[in-house]
Amino acid sequence: MIHRNELVQYCDALLEAGAFRDACPNGLQVHGQDQVALVATCTSVSDEFFTEAIRAGAQLALVHHGLFWNGDERIIDPLMGGRLGRILTAGLNLLAYHLPLDAHPTLGNNAQLAGLLDLSEPRFDLGLIRGRAVGCRGRLPKSLSSQELAHKLDQALGGSSLVLPQGDGLVEQVGILSGSGGDLSVLLEAKRLGVELLVTGNLHEQSVAAAKELGLSLVACGHYNSEKLGVRALGDQIAAHFGIQVMHVDVPNPV
C-alpha cells in the first residue's frame, strides 16, 4: 500500500497539473481512504464505473472526466448526490486529470493515438487551449488513405470512426486532437501547419463544410474512444512506479 497523498503528488508533478487553465479541478476531487493498494481507471465517471471499482475493492478511482466542471450548478442534485453518496460511503478517492492528460507527450491521449499510428517525432504544437497546446502532429511512416487510417484506429480502439475524406488521395501529415477537437479554430490551425488529415473525437456541425472548403480530411473516432488510452497509460505508470495493482475498467460509450 501507499499513501494517497504520495500518489496524488506524483501524478500532479508528472502531468504538470498546475500549469493548465482548465474547465475543471485537476488532481484529487474527492478524498477517501488514506491508504491505496488498488487503483481503478476509466475515461469518465459513472455509477457503473464506481460500482465496479468498489466491488473490486479499489481505494482510488482515476479518470479523465471527473465530477466537477465550470458552469455546473453548485447544488447536490440527484445525479451528483447518488454518485457522491456511493463513493463517500465506500471511502473511494477520486483523482481526475483533464487537459494535463491530453497534453502529456508520452502518456497523454494524443500521444497514445500518435503511437497507434506510428507518427514520427510528433510535435505538440496543435490545439491551443487557454494558452497551451495539447494536440500533436506528425508524419505517417507511409502514406495512407483516410479510410485505411481510420481502420487502423478502429481496430485498436474497438470503434467505428466517422471519416470525411477530401478527395481520393493519400495523406502523410496527420494532426491529432482528442475529444471535442474538431472546431473551426482547430481546423484553421491544422491547415496552417500543413496537416492533411485531423484525427479527433467528435465534430461540430459547422466543421463538415469548413473541412471540405479547406481540403482537410477528418477522422472522428468518438470522444470516449479518443480519450480512453491516456488514463490507462497513466494507470500503468502508477503500477510500475509504486508496485501497486491497477485495474482498467471500460464503460463503452458510442459518443
Q: What's the structural blueprint in terms of helices and strands?
A:
Blueprint: E1 2-3, H1 4-15, E2 27-30, E3 35-36, E4 38-44, H2 47-56, E5 60-65, H3 78-90, E6 93-96, H4 99-103, H5 109-116, E7 120-129, E8 132-144, H6 146-157, E9 162-164, E10 171-177, H7 184-192, E11 197-200, H8 207-214, E12 217-220, H9 223-226, H10 229-242, E13 245-248
Parallel strand pairs: 4-5, 4-13, 5-6, 10-11, 11-12
Antiparallel strand pairs: 1-3, 2-6, 7-8, 8-10, 9-12
Helix pairs in contact: 2-3, 5-10, 7-8
The residue-averaged pLDDT reads 96
CATH architecture of the largest domain: 3-Layer(aba) Sandwich
Number of helices: 10
H-E string? EHEEEHEHEHHEEHEEHEHEHHE
Q: Please state the CA-atom Rg, rounded to the nearest Å.
A: 19 Å
What spatial order of strands do you see in the largest sheet?
7-8-10-11-12-9
- Write down the CATH topology of the largest domain: Udp-n-acetylmuramoylalanyl-d-glutamate--2,6- Diaminopimelate Ligase, Chain: A, domain 1
CATH superfamily of the largest domain: NIF3 (NGG1p interacting factor 3)-like
Helix content: 25-40%
Strand composition percent: 25-35%
Q: How many runs of DSSP E, i.e. beta strands? A: 13
**Distance between the first and last residues' Cα:** 36 Å
Taking the sheet with the most strands, its summary is:
6 strands, mixed
Q: What best-fitting shape do the alpha-carbon axes yield?
A: elongated
The CATH class of the largest domain, by name, is Alpha Beta
Query: Which spans have pLDDT < 50 for at least 5 consecutive residues?
Result: none
Secondary-structure content class: alpha/beta
Question: What is the number of domains?
Answer: 2
